[in-house]
Amino acid sequence: MEQSLTIVAAPDELIGKTVATKYLVEQMIGEGGMGKVYKAIQIALDKPVVLKVLRQALLSDERTVKRFQREAKAASRLNHPNSISVLDFGQAADGAMYIAMEYVQGKDLHHILSREWPLPEARVIRLMSQVLSALADAHSAGVIHRDLKPENIMVEQRRGEADFVKVLDFGIAKIVDGSIDEDGPALTRAGFVCGTPEYMSPEQARGAQLDHRSDLYAVGVIIYQLMCGMLPFDSDSAVGFATKHLTEIPLPPTKRRPEARVSVAMERLIMKALAKNPDDRPQTAEQFRAELLAIEKERRASVGTARRPAASSQPGLATVRKVTPIDQQETRVNPPPSPWASTENTVKASSPIAGPVPDEATGKSTSPDRDTLPGAGASSIIFKVATVLLVLLALGIGALYAWSVMQKPREVYVPPPNAPLTGTGQLYEYDPPRETRRPGDGAREANEGDGAWHTGNTEVALTSYLRAWQADPQPELALKIGELYFQKDMTVEARAWWARYRKDSAGAKAQPYIDQLLEK
Q: Hey, which residues are catalytic here?
């Protein structure tokens, strides 16, 4: 049974060391039954990663090694924004097996649940719809997670995007399409139960054959827990939880915790997901997600209806509000007669919207036309002439500004003649003034280089890094360019670029890595 990761602070023998000459281990962030999890730096890219290292004592256990390899294979199949990305997998010179994954700066869902409950229903839908989207991608790739729980769901706050979800830990994932066959003994024996008991589907608790609907049961348990702050069942043992999942019908969330605010539609969907028979649950992750989003859509529609004032067929019950001149100007309609109607003087002082006004002397209705007032004709002409002059002046200023912009020579950055895109040593000395650098272009080219390197296209990566260097020379670029030259067996160029890296980088953290490469 996979153990949950527990946060620990004690250092161990790997901290400060380099794994597979690629990853500088900074700290241990967790520990599970199979191994330890570290935060490390991918030296070549100066990028934080999560490094999962199998315990040395388990390297002789064929079943555990196979399971570790399967985790890497399962996760490497996934290419979804809400699934953790596997960057690398291998075995170090000392035999240590490792998986390098993307580093997520956030909190797991268990942490959020324990500190922020109660969670609004809209937030639960936002979180779990992303989980289901990741599961839909995994299931379409033939991967069943089998250990979904709040601790395996990371949530980070990105700029402009709250509660961005990453599903991780495919340590006991099952690959069901047969395209990747493990040699040796079966990893999941008949009747063998793996997973976390609190979130196990009934068929998983029985040790029966599983399909993707087992994951959807676990999603139902998690939503139940998020909505009412407790699990569907209580027990003090793994066997007790498994037995209850097999035999008991859980109480609906509103009966288990009456003070919890759970909509009727949400409760109905939760109980559907917790059905003992997989045929009675949502049949796919996409279907589950659609039903979840429909609840939110219905909630928003009902909120909008509640805010809209209802029309009353009984005039005596209608809300009456005094109509002011400001209301008249906004709505552009004549106010109906009311007990609070304006006095004659007030109406005369208001805008022409107020309509005809009875004359005091004759009693006839006249309209307060500006042109019929004393002096109105001359004032109107002066106002019109002034308006035309101001418009002509504005047009003239705009035309003059546009002409000056067009005549001004455009500053175009031209790299020096001794700085070609590829070369054998001159470009590493390039050091332009700060005001001529283009950091935006440099960052864009560097990102393209990183992407090309990750896909194994080192020639494109080198070209992109050199262009980034011309736009904005940075120490990490010199480090990367040096390594790419070293891979091309151009040691002289590599040394030159690494010398520039040492010159510009305070502390030169990657120097031990460079020395290790040069000693080979």
A: 147
